[in-house]
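Handout, section B. The chain below has 501 residues.
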Amino acid sequence: MKVLLSLKKVKTFSKLNDSTLYYIDTYDKNNHYQKRYTLNFNYTSKIFDEYEFLTNLDNIKTAIICEGDDIDRTDNNKKIITLWNTSFAEKFDNSALYASVFPIWLKKHKNQEKTFCLKIEAAGWVDNVNAEICNDNDKSVPCPDLIILGTTQPYSDYWGENYMETWNWEKVFKYAEIITECTGKPGFKFSGNITDDSKFFVILCQALGIPFIIEDTKLDIKKSGFREKKYIDKLSIIKDLFEKHYIEEWLDESEIKKWQNSSYPQSIIDQPSFSHKKKNRNFNLNGIMIDFLDKNDYPNVKYSYMPGNSSFLGGSGIVITKKSKYQEEAYDFIEILLNDNFPYFSKLNILTSLSKDISNNKNNTKKELCNKLLELDGTFPYYYAYKNNIHVIYLKHISTKSGKGIILDNSFNNSFNNSIFNDLFNNKEFICDDDANYEKKTITYYDEFRIKLSLNNSETIVLKSMRDIKFIEKMDDLTLSVLNNILAISKPLQVSIIIYI
């Protein structure tokens, strides 16, 4: 049994200690030991310096993270709190965030002379809901303390009190009919994800009030909700959508016909999996399409929330299992995860709002914003003001274990003969952090298109990227002077690259 928690306010935690060294042991799908990684926790950004590196790890089914020498303690000498995540073993990016919560959480319980480690299991979307847990009669059955679950939320606040009457699936399907008859092409489609069709059906049934399972208390049995005629009648609104091809076909029709002419499956094992028509599908948007806001960007398309009272455009929930030995400690983990003083909740909410663009920058650290600014690999032109003169320099964006950074691209900069940067860079890498530091060779975020760099212990400059040129409708004198400087030393191909960045 699982207990769902809903937290509204969280308390502020006391000042953190300065223990920074952590280790993480990783295991593959077959529970074979893979590798141990050394991590350094940054108490300024409140994430590991190796966070970006962790997000790129793969083939990890289980990860155990401990502070310092605790990693080598026997199980009898340390307590392990277990978290089941919805991620799959192929990617560790989502689990890296929960690993970053651990040092903050451990500080509180370490002071109480309890030695804890955190185990993160990539349970996936199936086992984290359906697998047996916490069996007192069978100790081989796992008993996680925390389980991440998918959740959905209604959007009535956006549409108003009567949103279910003014925006419903009947209206969506009517629009699909009008678009199809007008254009001659299906007016409704899925984005191409292999689970879009099943999610659509679940959302539609919930919006129409059709239960998948009905519990018969008299007979003490559970029955399919589709056995009742009134629920089947509600589904009649999709009859024309499919029969008149208002929806774009997404499955191989020959496989469906073969299945229809075969004997009825006797078990779930006999149920076939139909192939998607990926090769022949048209990905141009003709009318209405279901998609996730963090999946693709359609700048010329208007967005709308799905009708009904549920949608997969929600987020994640977290539960504490009833038989967890560490329920209070697990509750503290959730508190930290949702605490606005830490960056974790902001990182968990990456979707774009439909009502207006909310980037969550206010909750990001300068190091995170710097990494985001330099996320595109390649060489880019920057300009800066120094001693009343405007200078141009080409910087190469690089990826390191600690995050993004810059290095001077000498193949472009030989023509500048800029003694300041020739002496300063000299093949040195400058890595994003929360402060620009000359000794540590770090840079930091200044604003949307600028980074700050220290020339020495007392002097800093601001480097301005030219990546926003496409947003400038009318170039000012400063921009024109910079471009003229570039034109004087660049080849035609280089000019094209600069203008269209």
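Note. Residues 366-499 form one domain. Compare this with the example in section A.
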